[in-house]
Amino acid sequence: MLPLEALVREAEAEVARQMEICNACRYCEGFCAVFPAMTRRLEFPKADIHYLANLCHNCGACLHSCQYAPPNPFGVNVPQAMARVRRMTYAEYAWPAPLGGLYQRNGLTLALALVAALTVFLALGLQTQGTLWRPIALEAGSFYAIFPHNLMVSLFAPVFLFACLSLGIGVARFWTDLDAAPSKGESIHEAIQEASLNAIKLKYLDGGHGEGCNEADDRFTHARRHFHHATFYGFLLCFASTSVATLYHYGLGWTAPYDWLSLPKLLGTLGGVGLVVGTIGLGLLNLNRHPEHGDSGNAPMDRGFIALLFLVGATGLSLAFLRESAALPLMLCLHLGAVMAFFATMPYDKFAHGFYRGAALLKWSIERRQPTRLKLTAD
Amino acid sequence: MTKIWDVLVIGGGNAALCAAITAREAGASVLLLESAPREWRGGNSVHTRNIRCMHDAPQDVLTEAYPEEEFWQDLYKVTGGITNEMLARRVIRESASCRTWMRAHGVHFQPSLSGTLHLSRTNAFFMGGGKALVNAYYRSAHALGIEVRYESPVERVELQDGHFVAVHAGPPGALERISAKVCVLASGGFESNIAWQREAWGQNEHGEWPADQFAIRGTRYNMGVVLRDVIANGADPVGDPTQAHMVAVDARAPLFDGGISTRVDSVSLGIMVNVNGERFYDEGEDFWPKRYALWGRLIALQPRQLAHSIIDAKAIGRFMPAVFRGEKADSLESLGAKLGLPLDQFLNTIRTFNAACRPGQFDHSIMDNCRTEGLTPEKTHWARTIDTPPYFAYSLKPGVTFTYLGVRVDETAAVHFGGKPSPNLFAAGEIMAGNVLGKGYTAGVGMTIGTIFGRIAGASAAKSAATAQENSRVAA
Question: Which of A34, A162, A166 is nearest to A91 (CA)?
Fold first, then answer.
């Protein structure tokens, strides 16, 4: 067995062990979907373990209320066990798998090294042309004066498309293993609607009682939810900005730069601010989280992803303000480097969590509408 | 000069926290001494999951109605009348409104857990269980400015003619004398003190010491030091030291802190046999939640304090999953051999049982008509033949939740000395639960007693401290 495979099996066995303890206790049923999903089962094969692990939002409520948490000899720490399996889900399901293993061990280093390498590469390219450090006149297509539009597209499109393919294959494999398709005659629309709402509202970071999740201790707070919203919706706004700009470019023939009150600029600025504020908040929460909450093995991946998103947001924003500065070409290299590193690592890093968790949430919404196979009665 | 606290609370579980918070909110300065380190704080409360509450109409998580009289009858039945009606009714009445106070101090409730529908009418479940409740109370205590000291076991309580003076507390060898105007005892029972349990249970007719086989389901810190000390110094005792909340738990349960997951709920779906392969009690007498706390004691009275729940494939999926896997076998012979039972007797017990099962309509959610006829003891409900492999067995031993020996209190939670209430010593929780629970148990009533008497003791303590303040001013 490959070392990674052995680790995966060990992490899965630990989740199964803990779920059998939880299933005999069930005190945490009100916090999130993981425990009600657990009670529909008596045994925990691999697919169910990956399902439950990705359904877990790492809110921490069950750890702080657990009578079996360490130092109790039963040693139950559900958020930690789930986090370990989750990390392996991203590595195991994505294609090609070996890249995933590389990323999950050295997330932060890899992300930053990739940004640096790509930036240097782009900068060297400009340097040879003598255009790295000079002010660009405010004229139509000023970015394209540094990097021609077609060059940018030909650099980014393949990386982006490969990432989408890789992630798509991973999530499709995961969905197949989940075996979640509704039985004949069942409508999936309600389930899709519910799962989507649960995802976009981060329902399962509300603690079940609406007071939020845990961070540094047993207090509940909405901080993570709010910073995640800023990050996620900031990212979507940036994506919308790029999409609108693409439409302008190809559809309407309006080329960049756009002025401050244009749609791409408004969306991009707002999104950039969201990304920067959100990732700073998430980063601080991550650094201050209770040491037993979650898995320290996930920290490189989590922090690498947060750092990448921060760089994407911060460099993107700064481009808008450095418009007439000599630093613009260098900053553009940095921004493009960050975006490309972000695309390249997408299938294996924390970015994937949204897709795998979305699949798990959908399975839960389908499953909870089906009658349970168990016959636990009033006794 | 060392500080003299208004109210000193001994203990760190639910009753102690309810008392401390109530006293603090009434204006007293409060010091709480928890014997355990922080990670083990909260005593047995961290293992609880709900509180039994009366209500005359549906209330949020509680369905239908559970009137005072029905609650009282339930309590009267399980205790066989060994209870104090005045104190019991006080607890029952206040249980109707206590959840508003609990919510205000951070406790969240949830609908009854899956597999516990029978409790949705009578018991309100804490979201996340008792540890979440304890955490919420500690956060409230902190916000109110209550001082909490962990790892501070009380070694001795200084009393003068039923009047509290001070405690000697702290790690061995570094005892500190702490004075206070008033003291609340909320330090639990003595179940973790194995030597004391041994002394209380003594030897049985087989020359065995039954207590040697007990698992303690909760905290290892309830050593009964304070309980023994105050009784030795004249506090009136209440209850029998062998009476306790005792559940049948998996024989592989750890000595301490096995909590709820070590219980096994398959008993009423099959038969129970002792180490001789014989049945010894009606497994279908009543719904499991009304009987689970009886079986610990029943097994304690069997040879080797061990018994086996035997079920067949028909029972799988019908009871809450157990934390440890049961023995599994394709034949009864092989199952009996795995359990080390005298095979002839075991098989004979099964044969006789199967032959005595009358046809009926099996329904585990009601007291159905599946019963035996002509057996001693009979199985009066849910009796189905054991004949479908694979067969399963769970070996069970007694698990003690908490002991009932305590100190006698009155309606103000004042501890009695020679029949008279102490002016400044109060008690709440397991250390006085024996006033209400002479024997037996009904789910969630321990938390009801702890919460209500915790609040009563806290209010009495604050009042007593204020009076002491007033008196000293007058004297000056």
Answer: A166
Q: Which stretches in chain B have pLDDT values below 50?
A: none
Q: What is the pLDDT of residue B1?
A: 52
Percent of chain B with pLDDT over 70: 99
Q: What is the ipTM of this complex?
A: 0.94
Determine whether the interchain pair A31/B47 forms a contact, defined as Cβ–Cβ distance below 8 Å.
no
**β-pair partners for B156:** B168
Choose among A20, A68, A378: nearest Cβ to B365. Answer: A378
Amino acid identity of residue A88, one-letter, is M
How confident is residue A2, by pLDDT bands cut at 50, 70 and 90?
A: low
Query: Any CB–CB contact under 8 A between A183 and chain B?
Result: no
**CA-wise closest residue to A64 among A205, A213, A228:** A213
Between chains, do A376 and B115 touch, taking CB under 8 Å as contact? yes
**β partners of residue B59:** B62
**Chain B positions in Cβ-Cβ contact with residue A72 (cut-off 8 Å):** 257
Burial of residue A189, with CB atoms counted within 10 A of its CB: 0-12 exposed, 13-18 middle, 19 or more buried:
exposed
Sign of dihedral through CA atoms B412, B187, B130, A206? positive
pLDDT band of residue A153 (cuts 50, 70, 90) is confident
Distance of alpha carbon A276 from alpha carbon A314, whole angstroms:
6
CA distance to partner chain A, nearest, from residue B404 (Å): 23
Say what the pLDDT of residue A109 is. 67
Domains in chain B, CATH or no CATH each: 5-189+224-242+404-475 (3.50.50.60), 245-399 (3.90.700.10)
